[in-house]
Design goal:
This protein has about 200 residues and is an alpha+beta fold. The chain has 4 helices and 8 strands; from the N terminus they run H-E-E-E-E-E-E-E-H-E-H-H. Strand 6 and strand 7 form a beta hairpin.
């Protein structure tokens, strides 16, 4: 298929609310291309607006190397979400480290619901409903925000947790207390930083 160009923060499509998919066949090629793009980059999730298509489509997977030690969930295979809806199950938000393909070279700690209820349609028009928690729930919320024209800095309350991937920051301090709750991707960042 094809590797798609990813829009960066500042592009107007990323600030626009995506429209509902009415004809599922019209997004079948898009979904395959989004998957190819994620495989090529080695990333976990992508929303259609990030590839210049303002439709309510998300593609993601969770590999073993992205699951924190303390998380009680297993790997998630390729998942294709059409017209997803999420509902928080908890009232309080927790802080999760995030990166975004549309904000290359940056990371931040973002408030997210730790447990959510998810509802979406598959490309073959089957309704799927399930709960998600921990970094899995944070990933889904991150991608869902893209469908509503929201980038993760717009969710942040404290910008002291915003930094560059190649520069020492608060993840190292956080890892001392919460190592088993942090996505291993961020622990790998810390290993690469100059001491």
């Amino acid at each position: 298929m094809a590797v798609l160009q990813i829009l960066k923060m500042g592009h107007p499509i990323l600030r626009k609310k995506a429209s509902k998919v009415k004809n599922f066949e019209e997004v079948s090629e898009l979904i395959l291309n989004m998957k190819d793009t994620l495989k090529f980059i080695g990333a976990s999730g992508l929303a259609a607006p990030q590839v210049m298509v303002s439709k309510r489509v998300i593609v993601y997977r969770v590999n073993k190397n992205r699951i924190p030690l303390k998380s009680k969930f297993s790997t998630k295979p390729w998942t294709y979400m059409i017209n997803p809806e999420i509902t928080p199950i908890t009232t309080k938000k927790k802080m999760f480290w995030e990166r975004c393909l549309s904000l290359p070279g940056l990371h931040a700690k973002v408030p997210r619901y730790d447990k959510i209820f998810v509802k979406y349609y598959t490309p073959d028009n089957k309704l799927v409903e399930h709960e998600a928690h921990s970094t899995w729930a944070a990933l889904i919320q991150h991608e869902y925000d893209h469908l509503n024209g929201i980038l993760y800095p717009m969710q942040m309350k404290d910008f002291t947790y915003f930094g560059y991937n190649d520069s020492p920051g608060d993840i190292a301090r956080d890892a001392i207390k919460n190592k088993e709750s942090i996505d291993p991707l961020f622990l790998d960042l810390v290993k690469k930083w100059p001491k």
